[in-house]
Amino acid sequence: RHRVLSPQCPFVLNPDTSGNIPAVVLPPTTPSSSFPNYKNEEVRLSSFVDWPKSDIVTPEDLARAGFYSLRSSDNTKCAFCQGVVRAWEPNDIPDIEHKRHFPLCPFVASTINPRLENSQNPGQGANREATFKNVNIIGNSVNGNLGELGVQKHNGPKRVDFGTVESRLRSFTTWSPHLIQTPDILAQAGFYYEGLGDQVRCFHCDGGLRNWDPDD
Question: Under the phi-then-psi rule, with left for phi > 0, alpha for psi from -120 to 50, and beta for the rest, what region is 42?
Fold first, then answer.
C-alpha cells in the first residue's frame, strides 16, 4: 500500500539506502528575480487564478495560510517549508491542515500557531476526524505543474528520529494486537505509529495511512 500511494518515496524505491539518512541542511537560496516571491501573501493570492475549489476552500484562506497554487488540480504548496497539500475537502481549514501536516514549518511556528492560539474559536475544526491527504515534500527548485514533473524530489527524510527499524518499532507500544498488520511489518515498510487509531506515517516521505484493511 505504501508503494501504491507513494511510488516515488525514496524508502520505497531503495530501503537499503534510505534507512538511516542524516538530516540534510540545504544552503539558503535567493529567489530568482524572474520567479514570483511567494513569501508575499499578495503574490500567493494572485496564483489562484482559475482555482477549481473556491466553493470548498477560498484562495484568500489558502494564501493567508502560506500556500500558493501550483495550477495543477487543487495542488497547493507552502512558500516557506515547500510542503504540498492536495485533495482539499469541505470544512478543511488551511491553517489547521498546514499545522497538522507540517508542524515544523517556520511559517506555522511564527504565524499560524499564534493566530490559532489567539483565535476566539481555537478548537474550530481541530477536533474533527483528521483527513489524511496526499502530501508530498518537494524542493525549492521544483515549481509549476506537477503533472509535468514525472518524479518527486525529496530533501532527505522528514523524521530522522524514526530512521531505523528499531526506533519505528518503539512507536508501536500501544498498537492494537487485533490488527493483521503487525508493528514489525509496518516498521519494516518505513512506518511509525502516531498513537491514534491505526494511523501511521512514513518516516521519509511523511505520507500518512490509516483505515487498514485485512488484505492491505
Answer: alpha
Stretch 98-105: mean pLDDT, rounded? Answer: 90
Q: What cell does 144 get?
A: 509549476
Residues 6+ apart with CB under 8 A from 172: 183, 186, 187, 192, 193
Collapsing DSSP to helix, strand or coil, 161 comes out as helix
Radius of gyration of the chain (CA): 18
Q: Compute CA distances 66 → 7, 22, 45, 129, whole Å.
A: 27, 28, 10, 23
Domain boundary among 96, 128, 148: 148
| Kind of pairing between the strands at 135-137 and 200-202 | unpaired
Q: Residue 165 sits in which domain range?
A: 1-24+157-216
Say which CATH number the domain at 182 has.
Answer: 1.10.1170.10
35 shares a domain with 20 = no
Strand partners for 83: 137
| pLDDT given for residue 183 in this prediction | 93
pLDDT band at 161 (very low <50, low <70, confident <90, very high): confident
Residue 141, CA distances (Å) to 84, 118, 152, 154, 182 in order: 14, 34, 11, 11, 38
Sheet of 135-137, strands arranged across: 67-69, 76-78, 83-85, 135-137
